[in-house]
Amino acid sequence: GSSWNNCDFETSLCKALPEFNLQPGWIRRNGQSGMGPPYSDHNGNESAYFLSLSSEMQSYSAALRTKVFLPTDEEHLCQIRFHYWVSQMSGTFMVGLQKHSEDTVTNIWQVSGEPRKQWNVNTITINSTEKYEV
């Protein structure tokens, strides 16, 4: 059976992103916060919340870590679907996979800054025979 965990950041950081895993630099804001684009979420809602890197962080990197997910198999695939906006031409948005037997994070997807000022959407399917974080 498929179970979806939907995360919209309206009230909190959702079950997938524990509060303490929010590194400095990430803020929860909406399009009315006066911090520049995007001025709405991917649905065009100006008051809806999303996560954003603060402008002071422009020359640094900051990560978001998910909770620990259980191993996947034929019945239990893991798909992560997310909306993203890369505003800096020099910016790179990466998704990494860390299996619990490994110390390193393996980069499984990335996109670099595009001049198109718009929300994009992507879905990643994850396979792991052991517990993992994204």
Low-confidence stretches: none
Terminal Cα span: 22 Å
Structural class: mainly beta
Helix content: under 10%
What is the count of DSSP helices, taking H or I runs of 4+ residues? 0
The overall pLDDT average reads 85
Q: Measured on Cα atoms, how large is the radius of gyration? A: 15 Å
* Largest beta-sheet characterization: 3 strands, antiparallel
- What's the total count of β strands? 7
Give the SSE map:
Layout: E1 26-30, E2 49-53, E3 78-84, E4 92-99, E5 106-112, E6 120-126, E7 132-133
Antiparallel strand pairs: 1-2, 3-6, 4-5, 4-7
Task: Describe what you observe in this structure.
0% of the residues lie in helices and 31% in strands. It is mostly beta strands. It is globular.
Q: What would the keywords be for this entry?
A:
134 residues; 2 domains; two-stranded antiparallel ribbon; 0% helix; globular; MAM_dom; ConA-like_dom_sf; MALR1 protein
Outline of this structure?
InterPro entries: ConA-like_dom_sf (IPR013320), MAM_dom (IPR000998). With 134 residues, this protein is mainly beta. The protein contains no helices and seven strands.
